[in-house]
Amino acid sequence: MRLFGTAGIRGRLWEKVTPELALKVGMAIGTYKTGRAVVARDGRTSSVMLKNAMISGLLASGMEVLDADLIPTPALAWATREHGDAGVMITASHNPPTDNGIKVFNGDGTEFYVEQERELEEIVFAGGFRKARWDEIKTVRPIEVVSDYIDAVLDFVNHETKLRVLYDGANGSGSVLAPYLLREMGVRVFSVNAHVDGHFPGRKPEPRYENIAYLGELVKELKVDVAFAQDGDADRIAVFDEKGNYVDEDTVIALFAKRYVEEHGGGTVVTSINTGSKIDEVVERAGGKVVRVPLGQPHDGIKRYRAIFAGEPWKLVHPKFGLWIDSFVTMGLIIKMIDEEGPLSKILSENIPTYYIRKANVACPDELKEKAVENSAKRIEEILGEEIREVLTVSGYRFNLSDRSWVLVRPSGTEPKIRVVVEGPTERRRDELFEMAYGVVKEEVKKLKRTSRA
Question: What is the pLDDT of residues 427-450, one digit of tens each?
Fold first, then answer.
């Protein structure tokens, strides 16, 4: 698709994302949907401008608009389910401050499915927008979301605590909500980067370990029970235990997957193509099944497989609460687990097995990515031979091996890169597989670049 990527529309301001685009997408949404749209934004410097252009497009096509203004994405999804027929979030999520984007939601709070994004694109480029007559143009009304959303999360989590919690808001829109939610639970909150600033002065908005490693030392200095870090629009969440150890993304998914399967006495868990074998192991032991889908499509997976839980790195969907990625529910439930079962490090060591993962990117021009991945996969398949137990092709190529190791080569949906991810039951096994796969991809990209210049 020309506009939509892994999670909505996203790109550099004035290069891909412009007020003109926001206006057109707004008119396309109003052509595709009818009724009432809930609109919100993150704290980026360009988000007010783009939100107003979006509202103009929605009004022009005959929709009524509820303006929730500055709130995190999970709160927008919830508000859409409660009040709207569609929802729009102006955000570039974890991208740098130079970028912005648009996420579109259905009336039940789900992000637009892939087929809906494709249909919306067709309307944008065809230009056949519905245009409201002068007497059909609806109003814009402000709507207060934060306090009601906090109440909804509190009701769902249903827990009070006295834990000490460190919160890092990345200077993003989660900062207008998370400290207050935690305080309402009884938490003693210690916060950093918890004021909204579209320049993201505290750290890069993506909660990768390298961007938030300093939290490990803060955990120990402040003697907190757990630490949480969000991204720019607060759908992503990263976790540190009480010892200051980073809890890797697959471990968080595995923890919740295991618990939901146990609660349901089975069921299907949906996760993304780039997640690890520890999820499969704990789900299978609990009597459930794991299905992998392309990155950015947990909601598609829930719909298709009737999943009881869905997760991808940093992003968890709790269907019993809502059909969207929700870091605030994740936060509340982890706090509840700690109170009920003891320190987080103990919970994880007793419930989640250890695997070793390694990730890297290979720079590759967008026009060569598909061919480079295909050529690399052929060579990797030849090298691994009879070790291969299963090949998944929902997004790139993932080779599942007989010892629960796996190798993934896939094109990035947002950048001119190829992702190489490898996991093994030992560090040695991981490293030998990684060196092989990474070397193959680099060599194939190099060949294709040379051929394209010839």
Answer: 999 999 999 999 999 999 999 999
Nearby residues of 393 by Cβ (< 8 Å), 6 or more positions away: none
Task: Order across the sheet with 309-312: list the strands.
Answer: 289-293, 268-272, 309-312, 315-317
Q: Which residue from 306, 304, 326 is spatially nearest to 316, judged by alpha carbons? A: 326
- Across 294-428, the runs of DSSP E, i.e. the strands, are 309-312, 315-317, 356-363, 388-392, 397-401, 406-411, 417-424
The SS3 assignment for 420 reads: strand
Query: What token pair was written down for 156?
Result: 């769902």
Residue 193, pLDDT score: 98
Q: Do the Cβ atoms of 64 and 139 come closer than 8 Å?
A: yes
Q: How far are the Cα atoms of 22, 186, 391 from residue 221, in angstroms, in the given order?
A: 45, 21, 46
pTM: 0.93
Q: Which residue numbers are catalytic?
A: 93
* Cα angle value 178/182/185 (rounded, 5°): 145
Alpha-carbon dihedral of residues 112, 115, 116, 120, nearest 10 degrees? Answer: 130
Does residue 90 sit in helix, strand or coil? strand
